[in-house]
Amino acid sequence: MKENKKYLKIFLYTLLAIVLLILPEIISNSYYQLLINQTLINAIVVMGLNYITGMTGQMNMGTGGIYALGAYGMALLTTKTGLSPWLGLLLAIVLGLLIGRGLGYPSLRISGIYLALTTIAFAEVVRLLLTNWSDFTGGAIGVQGIPKFSIFGYTLDTDQKYYYMLLVLTAILAITAKRIISSKWGRVFQSIKDNPDAAEACGVNIAQIKILAFTLAAVYGCIGGALYSCLMGYISSNTFNQDLSINYLIMMMLGGIGSVAGNILGAGLVTILPEMLKVLENYYWLIFSIIMLIFAIFMPYGLVSVPGKIMRYYKSKKKRW
Amino acid sequence: MASQIIQLIINGVAMGFIYALVSMEYTIIYNSTGLLNFSHDKFITLGAYIFAGTFVLGIGVNPIVGVLATIITMFLFGVIVAVGIFNPLRNMPSRLFAIMGTIALGRIISEAIRLIYGATAKTVPGFITGVYRIGSIVISKATLVIIGVSILVVVILQIYMMKTKAGKAMRCVNQNKTAATLMGINVSRSIMITIAISAVICTIIGVLVVPLYSINVSMSNTIGLKGYAAGIIGGFGYLPGAIIGGLLIGVIENLSTVVIAPVYKDCVSYIIMIIVILIQPRGLRALIRRKK
């Protein structure tokens, strides 16, 4: 029985890998390819958000600002100095570390709602600076001509080639996330969400761990932003508004809090479904928001918790029989 | 120069009162339920839209009747939201889902507004317009109305909380819900009234800013955020602090335009807020307690 389950799991993973590898061949439409690339980037950002909001239970509402800094860091470095995008990716990671430390330190030392408010304010300040400091950031016009990645002289100039790079990066970051979640760090994160007093009594330095979680979130967010600016080749400041931050929260909520698979599922749903359900048009976001509210009240652990719930229900029924 | 600074201070006080009202409106909900209402700016927008879109431009009633009708509508809306959304969220095991719930509520309201009233911005022509001149200082009528109405709201809320039985129950629920229940106070009903009052204050803010901004879906985003900054500067959950914090932010951000470019005016209050969190997270509350 157990052996069978193991083989089934391996079989499913292989199937998933094959589907992901030949996906660009199946879809010929370049617009859908762009959407799928966007999904992978969103998945990275949501996995980051999961550390701080999903696992540790601290509200981060400034993902848009973090993402924007990553995107602009990449865009300005590559267009102003002509350096390789790989250095831009490195810069994004450094920026993420700086944001995590710089914002986490004031707002996470003290318990309460402060992180949510500081991150909102941070995102707003970033947006205002990007819009108004037009000599340096291009203002509302944005930055154009962001170069593509190249590996050993081989340029990833089409979305299909870029897809494979994103796939590899997403896989690496997803495995890292999975490992971190099931490591000591992950359990400490969860203990802070469940009962901070008990965690502190067990000798956990709560403030430090929260800052760690937030730093991870910021690094993932900045990487996502940097990859986004290379995907689009053009960015402007009005993309990175408050709605974007909320969309990432919706992705995490719908897919499943605290689970990497759920994060990726949520990112996919929120990015691709609007295109599939063109019929709903204007009502689309209204319906999604209502679903999110219902989820928040009745099914707080998202879609990935559904199979487990059904299984438990059947098991309890069997026992009663 | 002197008259310019006086002008800035007067405008700053008017904006400051708006921020003070915003921070009061969410502080009373925060105190009684422990939830931060992240949809409060959408409540303000909804109030403005119901006033302008439905009553004044739609049915075509007199603005004063329109204000009263909007206040009654929003009071009922507050009751429905309290029963349908805030009460279940308040009893959730984790704060996180409650915050998510209020965010989703905000999104629902703004999407509903977009569907019902359309995406184009509205204005109410001839609603509180005109200016007064004292020497070289120009004071718009809207500024005076904002200051007057805000002081009135603050005083009425204070009288309500100190003198009436329902207000005393509200303060009791803020301090200790179990003890309040033991004293025979209906906690759920008290919370319902609190949220309804908050919705009414939101409506008043929405109507007051109609002469300042055009009415669109994102009109109150900035006010909402600055309300949070005001709350933090005054000490979170401390009502008098919220009012002083609001006034401080309004005046400081207006005066800052003398030194820096006006486009960065909005950044000033957020940066002050982050500095306050860094140095003294309890804000002005710490100062006042120390004096005693």
Brief overview, please?
Chain A has 321 residues and is mainly alpha-helical. Chain A has 14 helices and 4 strands. The two termini of chain A are 23 Å apart.
Furnish the topology, listing elements before pairings.
The complex is a heterodimer of chains A (321) and B (292).
Chain A: H1 2-26, H2 30-55, H3 63-81, H4 85-108, H5 114-132, H6 134-137, E1 143-144, E2 150-151, E3 154-155, H7 159-181, H8 184-194, H9 196-201, H10 206-232, E4 234-235, H11 242-255, H12 260-276, H13 283-298, H14 305-320
Antiparallel strand pairs in A: 1-4, 2-3
Chain B: H1 2-33, H2 40-59, H3 63-90, H4 95-117, E1 131-134, E2 137-140, H5 141-163, H6 165-175, H7 177-182, H8 187-208, H9 221-234, H10 239-259, H11 265-279, H12 284-291
Antiparallel strand pairs in B: 1-2
Helix pairs in contact in B: 1-5, 1-8, 1-9, 1-10, 2-3, 2-4, 2-8, 3-4, 3-8, 5-6, 6-8, 9-10, 9-11, 10-11
Structural notes for this entry:
- The complex is a heterodimer of chains A (321) and B (292).
- Chain A is mostly helical and 321 residues long.
- Chain A has one domain: ABC transporter involved in vitamin B12 uptake, BtuC, CATH 1.10.3470.
- In chain A, 77% of the residues lie in helices and 2% in strands.
- Chain A has a two-stranded antiparallel sheet. In chain A, strands 2-3 form a two-stranded antiparallel ribbon.
- In chain A, strand 2 and strand 3 form a beta hairpin.
- The longest helix of chain A has 27 residues.
- Chain A is globular and about 70 Å long.
- The two termini of chain A are 23 Å apart.
- The mean pLDDT of chain A is 86.
- Chain B is mainly α.
- Chain B has one domain.
- In chain B, strands 1-2 form a two-stranded antiparallel sheet.
- In chain B, helix 1 runs antiparallel to helix 10 and helix 3 crosses helix 8.
- The longest helix of chain B is centred in the N-terminal third of the chain and has 32 residues.
- The radius of gyration of chain B is 19 Å and the shape is globular.
